[in-house]
Amino acid sequence: MHYIPNANLVREMLESMGFEEVEELFSDIPEKVLVDSLNLPEGLSEYEVEREALRRLSGDSFSPSTPIFLGAGIYHHYVPPVVDFVTSRAEFLTSYTPYQPEISQGSLQAMFEYQSMMASLTGMEVVNSSMYDGSTALGEALLMAKRITGRALFLLPEALFWEKRSVAENYARWQGIELKGVPYLEGEGTLDLDALQEMLTEDVGGLYVESPNFFGVFEESLPELKEILGERRVLIVGADPLSLAIQEPPGSFGADIVIGEGQRLGLPPNYGGPLLGVFATRKRHVRKMPGRLIGVTVDSRGERAFTMTLQTREQHIRRARATSNICSNEALAAITAAAYMAALGSRGLKELALQVASRARWLAERIDALPGFTAPKIGRYFFGEFTVGAPADARGVLRRAWERDGVVAGLPLGDHFPPLKDTFLISTTEVHTEEDYRRLLKALEREVVE
Predict the structure, then answer these.
(1) Tens-digit pLDDT profile for residues 384-423
(2) How confident is the model over 274-289, as pLDDT tens digits?
(3) Would you list the domain boundaries of the chain?
(4) What's the angle, vertex CA 75, arms to CA 70 and CA 78, rounded to 5?
(5) How many CB atoms lie within 10 A of CB 75?
(6) What pTM does this model have?
(7) Does the chain have fewer CB atoms within 10 Å around its N or its C terminus?
(8) 422 and 392 Cβ atoms separated by less than 8 Å
(9) What angle, rounded to 10 degrees, do the helices at 434-449 and 394-405 form?
(10) How many Å apart are CA 172 and CA 423, to the nearest integer?
């Protein structure tokens, strides 16, 4: 017999016996043999229980996980088992590509739910049913912006992850698109608006901006950018879907296209993939959007039915008319994200985002208190990750933290941002424990002592 205690059932059982309180039920037991309380520790979260069980099963020599504070687009979050349970169902976890998709109404509805949830987060009217990852979503957004404006010059922030920039350049090179970098304010990490204004010549078709950006910093000028660009230029915003649970959506600031990396939403780091490209736009641009959409309609019997619509991939229509040459998509990853968001709910997503933000702020304050370290080195308002100024070359600091203390403390920035040789990027999420933070701070503190 399965029984889960709850207050209503307890009250009903007590009433059936003529009692009001549980204590009355046991009133015939002598007080001297009653126990006031049990010596039990405070309750643990599901993730903490799992981690503790692994530690006990494996003995003292086993560490369930090496403290890893890497971020830069790929993050480690706890994924509730219910998410894997849902997505491992044979209806979803299949190699079958639905060339007759209307047969799979459940899959289509799951993708439709993903689109609806993401539209709510981004504040946009239309979301496609996924791209490969955030980087290819940027490449596709540039191609779409060219189709919208007819212009071939676009601006990217210099504070951009170098691998993402490389993908964008590969997309642009063969489509006749020219890319120019907008400098960031030293110490702030946000766009230099004066430099941006000077770069807005007549042939500029649009701007890509991230908030939070590569340095983890929120772009404070985001509400002004559409007005600066004007209606004839496209504003593309790169957003962190989790951060959107606690900040205004880009759609409210006039964004024409919103993209992002959805890996945070239920997908493990897994050596960098598979990932999930988020792509959203305005309804007026829908026919220029890449990918495919899941729509809802009514079938011949008058019942609700889900269907693929506006399938502008070259797999479905003539290549010359296709908006993208991507021949597949990340349907399972999108369904995983939908299952994850449904499991947490809007309140859970907000609580998680607040926890990630507050942990990063707390950790930055602790690192900043160490002699020789500055955190954050760039920016004031950040989400989940931040830059750390070290007392020596950052690459050496991180190498010693790993070799001496077994801690992966962050990502050095000097190779791609020469002025930041003493700076590294560090990220934290809800999976990090007090012991993880203790080991990290100890590893950094040894730099000062030695």
Answers:
(1) 999 999 999 999 999 999 999 989 999 999 999 999 999 9
(2) 899 999 999 999 989 9
(3) 83-341
(4) 125
(5) 22
(6) 0.86
(7) N
(8) yes
(9) 120
(10) 30
